[in-house]
Design brief:
7 strands, alpha+beta, 35% helix, two-stranded antiparallel sheet
Length: 248
């Protein structure tokens, strides 16, 4: 298939950036979207031009690195997948495809399609962990009884890969879905109760400090999330935050 690509090019964080047109021919429908970009980059290198910078790592939908807008949709037109799982059969011969980086104040563009998502790391460092007694009396996690509903909900929350699609899709650039998933995966388990109060207070405080917007319950984050993280986690985090506020 023959395609026209309109790709955001930006040399550095200080550059204004612009959309640049590229044409591609004989693109196989069996290629992944990232393989198509690999082919384009090889063509640019062969011509002595700067290849397009984009994040990628596992290419199996696990790491969340390959985060970008494809035709205005986070991770492209298909649901519940990341860009690396998107295949060119999702497009038609003659299509024009717009490819842009995430747009959010807390995710500044570093180069081309790569953004700085270290704000998520700082939120995790603020409370996304548990303390374990390693003095020799550690209780086997498998020996701790956990309600199946809570175990399943905690597992679902833990599938968040921190790609940032929730932030990029939100009109307020809110990170509530990401933070609530990280709070929920611990709040639902006995192991997460020791730091529960400090965790939700510190992670929400860091989220606000990073410049993310507030949640107005439009639900775009849940729709665009490649892992199907539920809005129920935001409700749970709000309850945890209210409870922690009363404890002081």
């Amino acid at each position: 298939m023959n395609l026209t690509l309109k790709i955001w090019r930006q040399k550095s964080a200080k550059d204004k950036g612009k959309i640049v047109d590229y044409t591609m021919s004989d693109v196989s429908p069996d290629m992944s979207f990232l393989e198509m970009l690999d082919v384009l980059n090889q063509e640019l290198i062969d011509k002595g031009e700067e290849p397009i910078a984009f994040d990628h790592d596992c290419r199996e939908g696990i790491c969340g690195m390959c985060s970008m807008f494809v035709n205005g949709q986070a991770h492209g037109p298909d649901r519940a997948i990341t860009v690396c799982q998107l295949h060119m059969r999702s497009f038609k011969d003659g299509d024009t495809i717009y490819i842009e980086p995430w747009r959010a104040k807390a995710f500044p563009v570093i180069k081309d399609l790569i953004v700085d998502r270290s704000s998520f790391d700082r939120i995790q460092h603020a409370g996304g962990f548990i303390s374990v007694n390693t003095s020799g009396n550690t209780q086997d996690a498998n020996a701790i009884p956990i309600n199946k509903h809570d175990a399943d909900a905690a597992f679902d929350a833990a599938t968040c890969i921190g790609c940032g699609a929730c932030v990029a899709s939100c009109k307020n650039s809110s990170a509530m879905l990401f933070v609530s998933a990280k709070v929920s995966q611990f709040a639902l388990l006995p192991q997460g109760q020791v730091e529960a109060t400090d965790r939700v207070m510190n992670m929400v405080k860091q989220m606000d400090a990073e410049g993310f917007g507030n949640c107005t319950n439009t639900g775009a984050c849940e729709v665009e999330c490649p892992k199907g993280i539920s809005l129920e986690n935001i409700a749970r985090m709000n309850r945890e935050y209210l409870k922690a506020s009363f404890k002081g």
